[in-house]
Amino acid sequence: MATVSEWVEGARPRTLPNAIAPVVAGIGAAIALDAFSWWRSLLALLVSLSLIIGVNFANDYSDGIRGTDEHRVGPLRLVGSGAANPKAVLRAALTSLGLAGVLGLTLVALSGYWWLLAMGALCILGAWFYTGGKKPYGYYGLGELAVFVFFGLAGVLGTVYVQAGRVSWDALGCAVAVGSFSMAVLVANNLRDIPTDIESGKHTLATRMGDGGTRKLYLTLVTVPYALTVLMGVWHPLLFITFVTAPLLLKPIKAVGGGGKGRELIPALRDTGMAMLAWAVLSAVALAL
User: Fold this and answer.
1) pLDDT tens profile 262-271
2) For 143-193, what is each residue's pLDDT tens digit?
3) How large is the C-alpha radius of gyration of the chain?
4) Over 90: is that where the pLDDT of 135 sits?
5) Phi, psi for residue 134 in degrees, rounded to 5
6) pLDDT value of residue 199
């Protein structure tokens, strides 16, 4: 049986900024529309956290039973390492995704925007079929696109919509920025795993683009949020404060751009996620003010 600490590590807490950042940015955009609701924001945050923990356990289970995690570099894989029974990890995944569904249904019912049920169902299905099912889309180079949609567009715009009943250009800008950050985190992860993914037959976007192309993609993605800051800052000058988060990316940019491999890239995931969260927090404050 896996220990409590192993279960916590298996949930991959370093990915939690990917779930928190879109909600925080969405809260800032909602405040700018004079539509902030603390309980709707809290429910949106809990949905996002449950969803990402669910997808992490689902990924652990699906990759583990396929054998693609046996020689993976990085955080503990519960199934691949043999630390936990596959059925136990599957139950954890389904429980987390089920909780996301219940919380999402509650949010939709209380807000009255019933059409959002379709978006919620799509998010849960996307979480499972990332590496689950007979033809997981994560094995066909579509993982980054899914992250952009679910933890960028859906996360930010959904948070705004359940509070304001509409979205704004500010919300869209934040959604694209956070989505680009989230993509960068996954790109760094898949860059690290190129050798083992090729060996196991997992065709991620990184294996298709190759080492050099993947590094260029990462550097492009972490530039997008700051380019959007300049554009949005024309109307909201306070947003320029988000540039103080740029130094958080110096080490990951050096690791990725400098040819780092394997374990050398692990801190890049954490630092990119922290830069994303810091950018989202400061953007929310700027929009709120």
Assistant:
1) 888 889 999 9
2) 999 999 999 999 999 999 999 999 999 999 999 999 999 999 999 999 998
3) 18
4) no
5) -75, -30
6) 83
Residue 203 pairs with which residues in a beta bridge?
A: 140
Amino acid symbol at 32: A
**Three-state SS letters, the chain:** CCCHHHHHHHCCHHHHHHHHHHHHHHHHHHHHCCCCCHHHHHHHHHHHHHHHHHHHHHHHHHHHHHCCCCCCCCCCCCCCCCCCCHHHHHHHHHHHHHHHHHHHHHHHHHHCCCCHHHHHHHHHHHHHHCCCCCCCHHHECCHHHHHHHHHHHHHHHHHHHHHHCCCCHHHHHHHHHHHHHHHHHHHHHHHHCHHHHHHHCCECHHHHHHHHHHHHHHHHHCCHHHHHHHHHHCCCHHHHHHHHHHHHHHHHHHHHHCCCCHHHHHHHHHHHHHHHHHHHHHHHHHHHC
Q: What's the rounded mean pLDDT across residues 235-251?
A: 96
Alpha-carbon gap, residue 142 to 203, rounded angstroms: 10
